[in-house]
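Summarise this fold before class:
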Amino acid sequence: MSRRPAHEDAAHAALRRVRSEGRWQARHAGRIWRWALLIAVAVFVLLVAFGRPLANWFWNEPQVEQLLDRGDRALAAGRLSAPDGTGAREWYQAALALDSDRPQARTGLARTGRAALQQAAAALDAGDTAAAERALALARELQVPQRDADAVARRLRDHENNGAGIGALLGRAESALQAQRLDGSDDSALPLYQQVLERAPNNLRALEGREDALSDLLQQARTAAAKGDVVAAASRVRSARGFDPGHVDLPASEAALNAALEKRLDEGRRLLRRKRWDAAGESFQTVLAARPDDAGAQQGRQAAIEGLLVTTAREAADFRFDLAGQALQSARALGATERQLAAAKRSMTQARVAERALTAPAGPAGAVEPALGALLERFDDAQARGDILTPPGRSAYDALREMQALAPRDRRVRAAAVRLLPAAQQCVEDGLRENRVQAAGACLDAWETLSRSGPQADARQRLGQRWLAIGSERLGRGDVQFAQQALQQAAHWGIPASAAEYQALQQRLRDVDALR
């Protein structure tokens, strides 16, 4: 058998491979077509079953978010519902219609309901019942808790029941305002407006009316202050502050009042320096009626009282009892203490005894001599003890007055008076040297009573300065009460309020009061 050539063998081999690959491709091509057909059927079924939800999801998601955002903005702006669909309720409901499972939409509707309740309460406070009813109806539609809605509904019923009363009060208040009956009685404008605001705190008519009434009241206060009527000005400022401590006109009105009060204080101090005690006391009393805690006015009034008491003793010693009684009555009106008044009355009684003794015929020498001898002995003992003016009833001065009443012409009585005068002067010097300012003051009073002449002015000046020095030292140790007394005594003994030492102590006392 003959062999085939090599190229024929290669050709046959290639043909066999082609045929083999063709059979493989034919066999696998059938499989591929079967899988492709199966996948196509599956895709078709999915599209039929889920095409609409998927399409809705892809298309509606941005729109729902936009509706929710608009609802949030409307809620923040307080626009809860609107006929044109731009309220928070309408936006949230539209979002819920597109996606009924969206929790943000349901939460937004709940928040809108709570906001509607708040709007209803605010409208009631402002007296707007119509707006309150609308807001309450919206809250009920949005299904707020029944208990909360019923609470607002009860307030609404109460407000409606009181509505007629509020209207009547407003009418009376506006009539009082027009007549300028601003305060001072229950039927005045400000108390009536206050009654309205207690029921409806945000009532616009009441708020505006009260503002107008307060402006008018404070204008009256400034006018009174300009005329010097500080009592009326203070009363109006105090009343306005009680109704509205933050009123815009209050600072200017208080400044005008303070300026008028300072002017009255300066006037009182000038009158003190001129020893016009009655007029000075009246000025200080006026300041205290407007500002009861004014330390300067209290000190000035005390100085005026002390000046009137000294005047009482002097006038009585000269037997001018009418003038002495007037001075005593003025001191009582300014608030002199019972102890001060008792001492002044005792001086007047002693002076009356002395006057009767001077005008009565002399009694038998035998009847006068024993009593006069006892009084002379009492006088000597008191002078030896240094009891020139005090204690009352046992002092040398009291014994001398009794001797003058008993035997004014007796040479021993006249000698006692001469002896007492230098003793009183020495008592003043001793008191100043030893810083016993109260004792020095009592002796100076006796000195001035016994003699109208002499260097009393210098002694008064030194005593006043000593009071200031001791008062300053005691204030440094925390004794505020003594420092206040020292300021009063300094003014009484003639130290002017413009003196540097006086002003320094006064300023320190003010600083201490400010720190309390």
